[in-house]
Amino acid sequence: MTAPRLEINLEKIKHNARELQNLFSSKGISITAVTKGVLGSLDIVHALIESGITSIANPYIASIRKMKEAGVDIQSMLIRPPMMSEIEEVVKYADISLNSEICTIKLLSEYALKCRKNHKVILMVEMGDLREGILPCDIERTVEEIIDLQGIDLIGIGANMACLSGAKPTVKNMAELSCIAEQIQRKNGIELEIVSGGNSANYEWFISTDDVGLINNLRLGEAILLGCETLYRKKIPNLYTDVFTLVAEVIELKTKYSKPAGEICQDSFGNKLEFQDRGYMRRAVLGIGKQDIDISRIKPRIDTDIIGASSDHLVLDAKETDLRVGSEVEFDVNYSTLLKLMPSPYVEKMYFSDQPLSVEAAVKNAGK
To answer: pLDDT below 50 — which residues of the chain?
Structure first.
C-alpha cells in the first residue's frame, strides 16, 4: 500500500459516537459532532450519521457546503462566527450559526429575508476562555435586538471553553451559563432550544455533577475522533483512542554518529538545536516530515525514539528493532497532527468500514 498514509477505522468512530451519545443523554445532553479535525470528511460524516448523530458542526462554510451539495440530509451548524464576506453562503448552507456580533446577525437577517427563509442563531457568551462571545453584561441588550430581527430565530446560547486559553469548564461557570439562559427565557418570554455548554473539555464537568442545569448540548470533536477529553488528554472509558493510524515508510537505515559534525547553525525552520553525544546509533529515515505532521505530537507504536525532522524527512533512533529499508512504522496521532494530516495531499487517506469490532477488542480497549 501507498505510504505515507492515514488509516481511519470508521467502525471505531461509530463506536465512540454511540458510547458518547449514551453517556451524555443520561443527563439530557445531546451531541453535535464536530468534523473540523477531519476536514469535513464525507466518509466520516456518514459513519457519524449511522451511529445516530443528528447534528454536524464545522467552522468552515466550505465543508458544510460540500456536505449539503453531496445530499447529506442532517442539521448543519457553523461553529465559528460568520465572516461578513460569507454571509450569503452561511444562510444558504448552514441551518444554525454561532454568533457574537450583532452587526453580523443583522446581515444574516437581511440576506435571510432576501432568500425568504429563517436562519437559526446561537448567541455565544464569554465565560472565561477569551475567544468568541459577548460579555454577560451585554446579553440583555443584544438579545432584545436579535428578537426584533426578521428572518432570524434565536434558538439558544452557547459558550466555548478550553480552546484558546485552556479555561476549564466548572460547576460554577456552567451554572452561570444556565442562569443566563434562564434569565433570557424569563425576561423575553421565549424558550431556548439549545444551551450549548462547550466541547470535549466538558467531560470532567459532566461526570462530576448531578445537576447539569439547562445545558442540553455539547459540541464534540476530539472525544469522538480520538477517545479523550481535552483538559488533560485522558482517555474516556470505553472509547477507542486508536481510530487513526499514521503509517510511514523507512527510506534509509544506517548506523551513524549521534552528534552532527562541524559548526551547528540554524536548521531549515530557523531553530538552533543542541545534540547529546550518544555515540553511534541505528538511524531510520522515514518518508514524511514537518510539512505533514507535528512531530512532537506523534508516537511510534514500536520501541523507537523520534530524533528530529525536516520538512519531508523524519529520523528515528531505530534501537534494537528489526526495521529495514521498506519497513512501515505505525504512529498514534493527536488532534494537532490530525489537523495537518487530513488536508495534506501527500498523505493518502484510507477508510476501513469492514472491520467489525469483536467483544474481546472492546473489552481490551476499555481496560486501557
So the answer is: 359-360, 363, 367-368
Residue 56 lies in a domain: yes
342 and 195 in a common domain = no
User: CA–CA separation, 144 vs 39, rounded Å?
Assistant: 36
pLDDT of 361 reads 52
Q: Give me the pLDDT at residue 83, please.
A: 98
Q: What are the pLDDT digits (tens) for 9-55?
A: 999 999 999 999 999 999 999 999 999 999 999 999 999 999 999 99
Residues 253, 221 share a domain: no
pLDDT of residue 360: 47
Q: Decide which of 194, 226, 258 is a domain's last residue.
A: 226
**In which domain, by residue range, is 259 found?**
244-352
Q: What is the DSSP string of 34-56?
A: E-GGGTT-HHHHHHHHHHT--EE
Do residues 143 and 183 lie in contact, with contact meaning Cβ atoms separated by under 8 Å? no
In which region does residue 274 sit, left (phi positive, over 0), alpha (psi from -120 to 50) or beta (all else)?
beta
Q: Are residues 329 and 264 in the same domain?
A: yes
Rounded CA gap, 314 and 293, in Å? 10
Q: Classify residue 87 by its DSSP letter.
A: H
Question: How many domains does the structure of the chain reveal?
Answer: 2
21 is a domain residue: yes
* b/e 44-70 (16+ beta carbons within 10 angstroms → b): bbbbbbebebebbbbbbbebbbbbbee
C-alpha to C-alpha distance for 322 and 339, rounded to whole angstroms: 31
Q: Which of 240, 332, 220 is nearest to 10 (CA)?
A: 240
Q: Are residues 178 and 291 in the same domain?
A: no
**Nearest-angstrom CA–CA distance, 161 and 168:** 6
Residues 158 and 289 in one domain: no
Active-site positions read 36
Task: Say whether 12 sits in a helix, a strand or coil.
Answer: helix
Grid cell 503509517 in the structure block, residue:
247
Smallest Cα–Cα separation from 221: which of 27, 1, 63, 2? 63
Residue 89: CATH number of its domain: 3.20.20.10
